[in-house]
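Hi everyone,

Forwarding the result from last night's run.
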Amino acid sequence: MMIECPRCRAENNDTSRFCGSCAAPLIPAGATLTRTLETPVQVIRAGTMVAGKYRIVEELGHGGMGVVYKAEDFKLKRFVALKFLPPHLMDSSDLKERFLVEAQAAAALNHPGICVIHEVGEDEGRPYIAMEFVDGETLKDKLRKGPLKADEALKIACQVAAGLGEAHLKGIIHRDIKSANIMVTAKGQAKVMDFGLAKLRGGSSLTKSQTTIGTVAFMSPEQARGGDLDARTDIWSLGVVLYEILAGKLPFRGDHDQAVIHQIVHAEPEPIKKARPDIPEGLEQIVGQALAKKPADRYATMEEFGTDLEAVAEGLKPVKARPRRIPRKILGVRAAYVYAALPVLLAVLLGLNVGGLRNRIFGGDGASARSIRLAVLPFANLTGDPQQEDFSDGLTQQMNVQLGGLNPQALSVIGNASVARYKKANIPIDQIGRELGVQYVLEGGMQREGTRIRITAELIRTGDQSQVWARTFDKDAASLLTIQSDVVQQVAAALAVELLPAGQASLAKSRTIDPAAYEAYLKGSQYYIKMTPGDTDTAQKFFEAALRIQPDYAAAYVGLYYVWAVRNQMAFVPSTEAVPKAKAAVLKALELDETLGEAHYALASFRTWLDRDLAAAGPEWKRAVELDPSNPMGLASYAHYLMCLGRNEEGLAMIRKALDLDPFNVTVHSFAVMCDVLARRYDEAIAEARATLAMQPDHPVALSGALIAYALKGMGRETVAVMKELYRPLQAPGLEAALDAGFVEDGLRGAAKRIAPLIAPAAQELRIAPTDYAFLYILAGDEEQAMKQLERAFEINDPNIPYLRQPIYDSLRSDPRFQDLMRRAGLLEGGPK
């Protein structure tokens, strides 16, 4: 329902309190947004016992949604903060509900950047929340002493972004981020307080008619208008906080609430550089993106926002922030006139088909050539049997693969690793759509009872969360593959995606697989990717079980190849055992099915890193991409092959494509780190490594990439910190102390010299690759030992030999022995292409 502005007659959402066009009030005069409700100063006296265990010490503060007291918990011998709903609001069921939503939202969170909820209870009819007592001061209080130093402001903003990012992953939006709701402890830890305005997926909306929730100066434009909110409203509000603590003033100000609303909706803030010329490079760009008027122009997620903040805090360039420059003139003409003429110009260009523009946009016959992005969310295991989790996960993965192979030009399907993070997560479909950049999601559930299997599937449009197609399949378990193919075909039909011959052939092949063999294959596929000795053993058992049932199952042989490839890469077994078995498995897979794209990726991988025949690998990579252009891990591996050959631009384009298909795949991100290192883009590598390690703190590839980038940028302390993480699993006695002592003596060179002897036993046992050990000697300045380790790497078939173009080897590059090694590895100019 819309309401008309009494001043300018513009239509506004009926939840708005001010006109979005002229800021005239749409509510009774005298009302204010800055205090939703007035509360009495004192509600409970000091010394009062609450719930038989809390003794009130003093009032800490009060606001529109409650009064907070410091109290002593007699049972657990600690101080807590007790928050009560004011008595004169006890008769309001809506406000009671909002008060309890605060507890429900915050109690679900466990993060150092968020105030901990201990208990929710009721005493004499008064609901209360017992929270962590934070000994510190609010950002609002800190600002009374003046703006914060840039490094302190960045540290606080990073901590708040991390806490809010955790909340957003659980489907919780704060909606009232402001400097008064952020506490800073004496040790400098920031904590987000007061989830009283939080909104949960599936919960009732607390933004009622004639009410705009939040504090006006920190509201996003959509919040000020009373529109629908998502996680990006918190990004805006944190942007306002960051501006405020740096500049010492708010970006949007006015004499009354209406004026502030008008500023938020229509005005650009004064450039922060004007108030703080000393802020780090890139920070103004970050604040600008957080304060973009349109949610779509802000950071897509709080995680992206935090990653850029951390990058600038480390002295690096932001990765996700975009410059926001609006030209006043274009070729000497006022920009407004040029923009107004663009539709006419485009129509002329389309009419004349200049440069084939019409064909590229609409296709050669004039029909619309759409490119749809889809995510297959993890199918729920509805059996109640935890043993069926691997099966339901495998079902999701195979549905994903089949849909991705139907028509890659018309339909892009997000990789399985990126959708796995949404398993059992209560996150709105529209938020998932924004985070993954998809227009549709397919979700459903699986239930098995005896010989029957039931699969429900639902295709949902992410923009308005409307159902496009839904169906329940209830058949004999032996019909599983038929059901899966039917789901895929019906989803394609609902999206009007034409099935290419290769996609049709793939669906036909899948129907010929024995269901029992298929189930064993699905389970094996869930284990080898975990890359531990026990998991590879389990994966091998499942793949071999599938082959006992169906000896001509090509995909199961591909699974066996990866079992042996992982064992070789991680040095679980000697190369002399792993390489022949990996080769036999992949060749058998191709013998059984020469058209299987994943088998060609496997053979290309074997030729590159196990067989070291880079010339023979090239055609295999091309064939694999032709057959399966939507395989994120395959494309990421191909990117590394291209980078190893020095074809950096092609490699960077390929890794970007892989990231686009699987944006939250930690392994693809780790591959991107190494691509940036190989391209000598060290700032980008460090930023990417930090983002990857935020997803998986111990990821070895990301740690290795961060180590190299830090070292090559001369960031000694950061390099030593990563060394400690990377070498900790070696359990070398005294390693960390040796690193610290060596660094004090002679920087990185001293640290490397000190630990090289300590790591020698692990290097001898191949628990650290010879190439990695060579890098340690390079840092120590011992080029002779470095060359010896590289020769050993070549002899034992170290899979890292193809990476000899890495900049870490620059000090060896003129050595004739290194040149000969490059020649033998097929990496010199004129080598394989």
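The longest strand covers residues 466-476.

Cheers,
N.
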